[in-house]
Design a protein that fits this description.
This protein is an alpha/beta fold. The chain contains 29 helices and 24 strands.
């Protein structure tokens, strides 16, 4: 008898069905006795078993059963399923003879387990296709499951009716919209099968919705998580509580099934078996192209479907489980041979990065890409859901490198609702930390990380960074981090930095990368020469008089230069110009407002504009430094604002200055050496990303600030 130990006999629970009940049913059909058990199990039942499979989450009951099995010489299989919480599995590692994971999409999970368990092998056992057949048989064999099933269905109907979702779910649908189904059974949003996975495709889903009217049907575990995390997608959605019957019902009417992450390919097989095209879970092709092709030519998704379905056919699943059980039994009654024990590799340094503002993407993503490609670093990236649409596309290389991407609801971070285990890392890195409104999420992140024992690092986020290079002197409490990584040397710090802050500073340089025009396909301004104008006029730094003068000079300069084209790029977050702040009325025909919320411009960040622009006019902001990195002529509209950090770039104080700068650009007489000097003064040259990774490694091994500075100086020499 093979015992599958589960946390519950509720057959509507996805893990119970896929990782225990369906395999046990297939084994019985193949002549191998198998049985599901839950909770405490009598010693006699355990001793009579041929093998014990821990198919549920590790619990006190499961630990007791596995210890009973060890004492009785019964082999134990630790089924890690689709995701692995390494810390959660530790108590079981010495009791399991082998471990199993789901299909190849879980290679990351397998790597974690292999580094943790001293077992002879990590076996891949595919999930069977959940066709729904045999449920009556399962309920008859496990009468308790019938009670679970009925109670859950009644509770679901009552809950849906109370919240108004019954009417929404059964309302007449818009026949003009294509239906996309996403389904996953994880209770935790960022686990495999959790609703946060859908945000990995956020950028492409938003673009697709601009081309084709679509609606999304989500079959998941938590309506609350779906509502909070996915609200920024701005796509019509309907939520259904997860059950195999709901998945089948949704797939029967679907035009496309989206599985956007490291999901078990059994889910893809399930959808394909229902005749629904599926976006591949692991591909270098952008999801937008795949989804567009599937919706316009569903037959184009069919190749390979039979192979996937065959992989999860009953004989394949049964054979894999027979192999796993046989391997466990070969471990000589619970005594692992020394030759079978895999040497545990050196523990990788755990690094957690936070993306909390739009401008953080350009700073943090290059570090995440390099760190995730380093074999000694275990990288996780936490992304606030409010910027998922902008961030998802930039995270693809990081995902391919094996990093784990998590999406957090910002208010949960502020209110200390993120589980402390999420911060249990060696090093936590963020940008934008501070006591101001824009830095509040990063502040909460730093405090939580330090409370969990991590070394916290804050990266300078702008040329004008409060508490470092800009503003009044701020107290030491402005930065809660252990170390502050700056773009420039100590001479760039102003009176804003107090002595305690200066004692934390490590100069590393600016990690932003420069792109080429070829990196931005379909950029709307690629076919013409234009001057880019950037504004962050939402900042309280600017008075109403400043804003009014800026708007007047923008319109006057464009109207006075009909031979040139101007593109005004509002700040991604503030969007002052497009939210009606300018009040300028009709604008000159040669002035285009690149609204960050419009489909035409949404996918393009400042880098795309800088790669194509002939010149840049900006309010005092980091855009000036970015223009210098791209070697694009730049000038600042200051109107009397102190902007010493930007010397020797030209300053525009009057309308005549705007026209003079435009004339310099037209004639090609701009003095480029000013850009080079500004860049050299503001940043340290060389590979900033490599320096930051070096600091991360030293911080993770608890080296002091003085030791890190000393090592940096040696490396520089």
């Amino acid at each position: 008898m093979i015992l599958f130990h589960v946390a519950t006999l509720d057959l509507d629970e996805p893990d119970v069905r896929a990782r225990a009940w369906l395999p046990s049913r297939l084994l019985r059909q193949a002549g191998v006795p198998a049985r599901l058990v839950e909770g405490d199990v009598s010693r006699g039942v355990v001793e009579a078993a041929r093998c014990v499979v821990l198919a549920g989450p590790p619990s006190d009951c499961a630990l007791t059963v596995s210890r009973q099995a060890q004492r009785a010489g019964v082999p134990v299989v630790l089924d890690a399923g689709g995701s692995v919480d390494v810390d959660r599995e530790k108590a079981f590692t010495e009791l399991a003879h082998i471990a199993t994971v789901t299909t190849a999409s879980n290679t990351i999970a397998a790597r974690h387990v292999r580094g943790l368990i001293g077992a002879a092998e990590i076996l891949v056992v595919p999930d069977p296709i959940d066709s729904g057949e045999g449920l009556v048989d399962g309920v008859l064999r496990h009468p308790k499951a019938a009670g679970h099933l009925i109670a859950r269905r009644i509770a679901g109907y009552v809950r849906d009716a109370a919240r108004g979702f019954w009417r929404q779910s059964h309302a007449k649908t818009d026949t003009g919209r294509k239906t996309i189904v996403w389904f996953g059974g994880a209770s935790v949003p960022n686990d495999a099968g959790g609703v946060a996975e859908l945000l990995l495709a956020a950028s492409d889903l938003a673009d697709l919705a601009d081309e084709v009217p679509v609606r999304i049907e989500i079959v998941g575990k938590s309506r609350r998580d779906a509502r909070r995390l996915l609200k920024h997608l701005r796509i019509p959605m309907t939520f259904y509580h997860y059950a195999p019957s709901q998945v089948r019902a949704r797939l029967r009417k679907a035009d496309l099934c989206v599985l956007p992450s490291e999901a078990s390919s059994a889910r893809a097989a399930w959808a394909l078996a229902s005749g629904v095209p599926v976006v591949p879970t692991a591909t270098d092709t952008p999801w937008l192209l795949t989804m567009r092709a599937a919706l316009t030519n569903p037959a184009g998704q069919a190749p390979g479907a039979l192979d996937i379905i065959h992989e999860h056919a009953a004989p394949a699943v049964t054979s894999a489980w027979r192999n796993a059980i046989g391997k466990a039994q070969a471990a000589t009654k619970g005594q692992r041979l020394a030759a079978d024990i895999v040497a545990t590799p050196a523990r990788r340094l755990r690094v957690l990065l936070l993306l909390q503002q739009f401008q953080d993407i350009d700073l943090i993503v290059p570090i995440a890409e390099a760190a995730s490609a380093s074999p000694d670093l275990d990288v996780r990236v936490a992304v606030l859901s409010k910027i998922a649409v902008s961030a998802a596309r930039r995270l693809r290389a990081t995902i391919r490198n094996g990093a784990r991407i998590e999406f957090w609801h910002g208010p949960d971070l502020l209110r200390n609702r993120i589980a402390p285990t999420c911060f249990a890392v060696d090093v936590a890195l963020t940008a934008s930390e501070g006591s101001n409104f824009g830095g509040r999420f990063a502040r909460a992140f730093v405090i939580a990380s330090r409370a969990a024992g991590a070394r916290a690092l804050t990266l300078q986020h702008g040329v004008d960074n409060g508490g470092l290079t800009y503003g009044r002197t701020l107290p030491a409490s402005e930065f809660q981090s252990d170390l502050i990584l700056t773009w420039g040397g100590p001479e760039r710090l102003s009176d804003a930095a107090c002595a305690e802050t200066r004692a934390k500073v490590v100069p590393v340089g600016c990690p932003k990368r420069a792109f080429s025009r070829g990196d931005f396909k379909d950029f709307p301004g690629a076919d013409r020469r234009f001057i880019a104008i950037f504004e962050n006029l939402h900042w309280k730094r600017y008075s109403d008089e400043y804003r009014a003068q800026f708007v007047r000079d923008v319109t006057t300069t464009a109207a006075s230069s009909p031979d040139l084209h101007f593109v005004l790029k509002p700040h991604m977050g503030g969007q002052w110009f497009t939210r009606g702040g300018h009040g300028a009325g009709a604008l000159p025909a040669n002035l285009t407002i690149a609204d960050p919320t419009s489909p035409q411009w949404r996918r393009f960040t400042a880098d795309a504009f800088l790669a194509h622009a002939s010149a840049v006019i900006t309010t005092p902001s980091t855009i000036a430094l970015d223009a210098a990195r791209y070697q694009v002529p730049a000038a600042l509209a200051t109107y009397g604002i102190a902007a010493e950090n930007y010397a020797p770039l030209p300053r525009l104080e009057r309308s005549e200055d705007w026209l003079a700068f435009v004339d310099e650009v037209r004639r090609g007489s701009y003095e480029d050496q000013r850009l080079a000097q500004f860049l050299a003064d503001a940043t340290i040259g060389g590979d900033a990303v490599a320096r930051i990774l070096a600091v991360i490694r030293m911080a993770g091994t608890r080296q002091s600030h003085a030791e890190i500075l000393s090592a940096e100086k040696v490396a520089a020499s």
